[in-house]
Design a protein that fits this description.
The chain has about 150 residues and is α+β, with helices and mostly antiparallel strands. It is built from three helices and three strands. It has a domain of about 70 residues. About 70% of the residues lie in helices and about 15% in strands. Strand 1 and strand 2 form a beta hairpin. The longest helix has about 70 residues. The chain starts with a helix and ends with a helix.
Length: about 150
């Protein structure tokens, strides 16, 4: 019986304190000074300012959790899409770099062939001079045609 009375007292006390969950602050204006107090002003103009309870209802709390979950899921989707796009771009850039390297190597080879053809012409005998000239001319034309953009 005693514990039932204690429980009832506890519930009533809790209920009384939860009713007055909103705090009040008073704005006091006396002459040209403004002060704030927890109790009404003794003299001068008193303006009560109510500060609402900052507790969030369970429904609002659940909505916030649901919104958070949706936003996290959307963020993960966007991050996944971004990683895929970045990987695709990286592969494309790698392919372009490889192609450019191949073209550069081909131009270097053709220029080297033209250099060798020029050396062959300077070392050619009179009999093979015409053949070496035409070989040099073709090597230079081929190098220029393949490497003119570089």
């Amino acid at each position: 019986m005693k514990s039932l009375i204690q429980l009832t007292f506890f519930i009533i006390t809790f209920y009384i304190f939860s009713i007055d969950a909103q705090a009040e602050i008073y704005k006091c204006q006396n002459n040209n000074t403004i002060t704030y107090s927890e109790s009404p002003c003794e003299n001068g103009l008193t303006i009560p300012i109510k500060i609402p309870d900052s507790q969030v209802s369970p429904l609002e709390y659940q909505r916030a959790i649901d919104t958070n979950k949706k936003e996290k899921a959307e963020l993960q989707k966007l991050q996944h899409s971004r990683r895929i796009e970045e990987e695709k771009t990286r592969k494309e850039m790698k392919a372009v770099a490889a192609k450019n390297e191949k073209v550069r190597q081909k131009c270097d080879d053709l220029r080297l062939n033209a250099k060798w053809a020029k050396e062959d012409l300077s070392n050619a005998s009179r009999r093979n001079e015409e053949k070496a000239k035409s070989k040099l001319k073709r090597a230079i034309e081929k190098a220029e045609a393949s490497c003119k953009a570089r």
